[in-house]
Amino acid sequence: MVYTRKDVSTLTAAEKRRFVGALLELKRRGEYDEFVRTHIEYYVADGEAGLRTAHMAPSFLPWHRKFLLELERALRRVDPSVSVPYWDWTRDRTPTSAPWTPDLLGGNGRRGDLQVTTGPFAHATGNWTIRENVTDGTFLTRDLGRPRDPIDLPTAADLEWALEDPAYDAEPWDSTARRGFRNKLEGWGAGRGKTSWRNHNRVHRWVGGAMLGGASVNDPVFWLHHAFIDLLWSRWQHRHRDPRYRPATAPRPGTAQHGRIVARHERLPPWDLTPDQLEDHRGIYRYV
Known about the structure:
With 288 residues, the protein is an all-alpha fold.
């Protein structure tokens, strides 16, 4: 049966309560930390050796679609009514709007150590201790909007710049690609500093704290952010005549990306699925 992913700003009080409760139960069981470990393991950058699947590669979108599905299946084993809502950051743009409410994700981190002290994921509740991390921190941190060096969330115009590109991806198939929807949405820009972070990447920077780097899954907003990224992929597919994943075939031996990226019909680690099998979500879930 096809289920629904809703805009987080439209959730009822009961839907918020069930979503939070399922997340906390996965954390209690130790299952949630497995998702954090997986993302850290597959957070491979251009400059590192080996296969890139989760970031800076064409498979950024199908990899995170499958990652979301795995989390959602775990949540639904706890409560079959739960699905991951999406956060439309072009509309809900302030530190006090959805999803930063006491009955959902809680608010900003406090000054000094950026510790989140409100909501169900505050360290003081005893339910959300950080165990898998790239630092020694044990509590959830946020720095919404980065007040000491302000940064804005992407706008609808920023998204349109990505959505209007008719190619899914383009050579050199990494963070330096100047053509293609995937990298424009993932958000690796030229230069340094805040102007080089576009769309997806800029949202991670705006949230700050735990959302920076490979352990970003420690902040539950990761899933709401990536549900919206997934929705945008779906919108891009519906807009263009040739909405297929690229590259269709693997880069030839001797080329820079040989063995470093996944082609359309190649296996997408760590799962036994291909990008081709993840292009259409309509038989699993829909967005409203």
